[in-house]
DNA sequence: CTGTTAGCGCCTTCAA
DNA sequence: TTGAAGGCGCTAACAG
């Protein structure tokens, strides 16, 4: 339990000087700084985070708010965030929020975050306006990853474009009845990724003069099981569907399983396109629109640190996206669907 | 920025009483407690974690040390840990450590953890004896998940048995030359899961009177790409191999891809069994030995909390494991391999 | 059951 | 460039 006092004595200086020397502040002579660092090292001294937070008002901790930690996109964003922030001396505190289908999730409580973190990263968590306002009122840097409300720093894809790209790929292959598996139907926010992707899907269909109808859109809960069951529901409603755009690869892979469950061949009977670039998509030759969540997490962290340093960050950083054409999407069978 | 003082004034009591009332300590009249809680609520008061940690010596934070956050097993353990601890009022601080093939990873530094966390969870991170000793010297409750050194509380599978079970399944199907894809070759610790699984694999072969040889064992780095490339290496070395046990499903799925890359049919030319129970294994009909990492994380958290409460925890909690037979493992082709 | 009084360990003026 | 001193906001004895 060596404290700053012991280091000060060992180095023959005051605690104030130890504090300055160890934190790299100016106005410490090189000789003194080196001596202090040597003694601190020798004694195994590390400042108590609580004490230094209390005194300085800074925690060197970032809060990461997210609905899931074990889904592909989220796990990779978190990985990027953690490694980036840790390498720069920041801790990452995880806060998960259930956004399961039924019950409304726990609300984001700004009071808990107030003196616990220096900055906040909201990863793929749709918030209502009050929640956003209350977080912003904390007056900590705030960065959204995946999607975010207008007026706040956000690192994201162009979801509309991504949804349109996936859909256009199917249209180009000759599909005329294209369904869509979206994520959790979110009623609290107007800016979650599945909303933009669905908009892109609808836009692409409309531009091509094809049918756009609610009967073609089902919810897949953003997971494998959801994708699997939703495809059955979709096919029940619309037996004429020949292709599907899923809002995530996990749902797309679930859709492949669901198609098989009812004896449909992919892509023979049903073409499927996902969005993400999941490593395991190759197992079923999944055609997808790939993104890089690790990089988004890393960059969002850097942006947050810039803001912590008083700099202004660009409001929106849009990430590139790339079509990876494999085998889960092909031309429709001739004679299938309406002529 | 309402502090305890304001709540005390509003409720007409001292700060000590506010502190007691809000933390549910005894010796506060019901009426007083309610009044305090009401005022705290009204004023949006939440105690400053730094201040209360500094004063009490407790942080209500658990450090989670892990090599990866985006691999299946780890992501699910973390999920279980986070949700369990959060629901009980504890924060989770993430610490990742690269254990990539080449360079030695950053060492675990106990000094950093000392006054930052109340307890430590080591998830699937093999440590050398010095690191274990230095963590133990912190005198915080310490729980290992996945595997751990003798003498410390560990939540895990019976890896030997699991490896043997997977291998026995292939032997029962008639295979005589069975290869193994293990995880990162770890030279710092003697107790990581792949080590136990490999031991089980060797034991099962030996018990059946079959060949056990280093040429049959390759490293797959515990990820999809590693599994994919290692299977090619294995087949190059041992063209007579007809089946493989992989130490994780991710490597097993990679192995499926690798087999396909060289035109081998699974299970026609090569049977593959994994260990984990990954949701996406079904995409390729992966036969596997399933475990439940979410539950392991949740239970390890509870154990840690018990220890924090002064209770003694059982040294080892072993989790059940279950063979999920699908289609990636079948009988060898007649005439294939040595008679 | 409640209030008073010291710190917890560090950072940050301010003065030297 | 350095030191002295006063908090940061809360908890933990101890009294009452």
Automatic annotation (TrEMBL), chains A, B:
Domain HTH lacI-type: 2-56
Keywords: DNA-binding, Transcription, Transcription regulation
Keyword Membrane on entry: no
Keyword Transcription tagged: yes
Transmembrane parts of this sequence: none
GO molecular-function terms, A-Z: DNA-binding transcription factor activity; transcription cis-regulatory region binding
PANTHER family in alphabetical order: HTH-TYPE TRANSCRIPTIONAL REGULATOR GALS, LACI-RELATED TRANSCRIPTIONAL REPRESSOR
Protein's name according to its UniProt entry: DNA-binding transcriptional regulator, LacI/PurR family
Organism: Paraoerskovia marina
């Amino acid at each position: 339990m060596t404290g700053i006092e012991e280091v000060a004595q060992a180095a023959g200086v005051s605690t104030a000087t130890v504090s300055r020397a160890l934190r790299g502040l100016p106005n410490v002579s090189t000789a003194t700084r080196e001596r202090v660092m040597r003694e601190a090292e020798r004694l195994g001294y590390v400042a108590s985070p609580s004490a230094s937070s209390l005194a300085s008002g800074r925690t060197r901790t970032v809060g990461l708010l997210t609905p899931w930690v074990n889904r592909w996109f989220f796990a990779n964003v978190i990985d990027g965030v953690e490694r980036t922030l840790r390498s720069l001396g920041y801790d990452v505190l995880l806060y998960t929020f259930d956004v399961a289908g039924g019950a409304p999730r726990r609300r984001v409580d700004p009071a808990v975050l107030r003196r616990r973190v220096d900055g906040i990263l909201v990863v793929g968590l749709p918030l209502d306006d009050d929640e956003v306002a209350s977080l912003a009122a904390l007056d900590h840097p705030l960065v959204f990853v995946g999607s975010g409300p207008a007026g706040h720093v956000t690192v994201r894809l162009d979801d509309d474009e991504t949804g349109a790209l996936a859909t256009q790929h199917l249209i180009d292959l000759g599909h005329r009845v294209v369904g869509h598996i979206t994520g959790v139907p979110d009623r609290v926010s107007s800016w979650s990724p599945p909303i933009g992707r669905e908009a892109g899907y609808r836009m692409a269909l409309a531009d091509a003069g094809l049918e756009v109808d609610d009967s073609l859109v089902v919810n897949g809960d953003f997971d494998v099981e959801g994708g699997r069951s939703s495809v059955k529901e979709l096919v029940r409603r619309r037996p004429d569907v020949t292709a599907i755009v899923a809002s995530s690869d996990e749902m797309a892979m679930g859709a492949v399983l669901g198609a098989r469950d009812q004896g449909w061949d992919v892509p023979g009977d049903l073409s499927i396109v996902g969005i993400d670039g999941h490593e395991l998509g190759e197992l079923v030759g999944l055609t997808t629109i790939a993104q890089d969540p690790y990089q988004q997490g890393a960059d969002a962290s850097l942006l947050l640190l810039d803001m912590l340093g008083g700099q202004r960050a660009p409001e929106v950083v849009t990430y590139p996206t790339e079509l990876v054409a494999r085998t889960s999407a092909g031309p429709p069978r001739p004679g299938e669907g309406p002529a």
